[in-house]
Amino acid sequence: MDMEKILHKGKLVAIRIKSMPAGSVPMTPPEGAIQVLTLKHKKGASAEPHTHRAHKRVTHTLQECLVVISGLVRVSLYDGKGKAFRRFRVAAGETCVILSGIHGVEYLKNSEVIEIKNGPFIDDKKMLKT
User: Could you tell me the fold of the domain covering 1-20+61-119?
Assistant: First the structure.
């Protein structure tokens, strides 16, 4: 599996998924606000019809998953003082899961990206002064 865990001061802040391993594989920690799994199965495999029981789920952080369908983006991760500590590119077919902290995304090519995050939606963006 080609996955990179990105740490800052010992804390997991992002996960970059460059390729998918075979099977159904969790990528994010089970206690996280967003659960990301890769699903890579051969023809004929299936998931039995199912639903999920209702549970109260409380999260105190917003996490994001960026799936780059086409193009190229650069993700920048910042420390609490607004200084970038890591920048990396995410290409078509790759995924980045941002678990915590200040982050920015720059579109280096015309891109199609799916962003997935826990809801409900709240317009609470706090912009970093640069």
Answer: Jelly Rolls (2.60.120)
In angstroms, the CA 88 to CA 2 distance is 15
Does the structure show a pLDDT above 70 at 1? Answer: no
The Cα 130–Cα 121 span in angstroms is 26
**Omega before residue 120 within 30° of 0, cis:** yes
C-alpha 14/C-alpha 105 separation (Å) is: 13
On whether the CB atoms of residues 41 and 57 are closer than 8 A, the answer is no
Tell me the per-residue pLDDT of 9-51, one tens digit each, with 9 for 90 and over. 999 999 999 999 999 999 999 999 999 999 999 999 999 999 9
Distance CA 68, CA 17 (A): 11
